[in-house]
């Protein structure tokens, strides 16, 4: 009888662990640029980093090591920004993954695990990369149905290049069993 009781108890414990609600935790963060690249900044190549700048909107661009500047695109033009730079950082770089994607297949549930990069034209934008004009470029991704849907990057002749095919940055979140009472939002 005692054995049966132990068995039921163990089973109940197991069920309660398995059935606990999982809160996805995205472990990345943004650090201010204070004259040097943060040690935990995420790089795309040995000298290219993902940066966020405030320039009318919150934009995503590439920080080129040694230049002190972020190159991005805004309203159809190549823009160079030297202030308000933040770097995308993470201690576990293998949680970031570049996913080959087409703009038409950016559905809301797919976007759930993509890294949010900025905010422009009243929509959240995501982070994309492409090898274009002989170099890696970082830019924002507008999901459909935005008229500029796809990856938007600058061009060498000061303009803009929009492509429906690109790689988008995903972060594989960690499941953390935080007690529900500590999760303040998404509850009402
Ligand atoms: C999980 O979440 C649902 C809905 O928010 C809630 O009804 C349920 O009690 C939660 N379960 C646990 C084990 O916290
Ligand atoms: C990031 O930078 C390090 C150090 O320069 C380099 O070894 C590594 O290859 C870079 N990562 C990528 C994806 O290029």
In brief, what are we looking at here?
With 188 residues, this protein is mostly beta strands. Helix content is 11%, strand content 47%. It has 2 helices and 16 strands.
**What shape does the CA trace take?**
elongated
What structural class do you assign from the helix and strand content? mainly beta
Major β-sheet profile = 7 strands, antiparallel
Number of strands: 16
**Overall tally of structural domains:** 1
Report the mean per-residue pLDDT as an integer.
Answer: 89
Assess the beta-strand content as a share of residues. over 45%
Order of SSEs? HEEEEEEEEEHEEEEEEE
Share in helix:
10-25%
Distance between the termini: 45 Å
**Tally of helical runs:** 2
Show unreliable segments. Answer: none
CA-based gyration radius? 21 Å
Small ligands present: 2-acetamido-2-deoxy-beta-D-glucopyranose
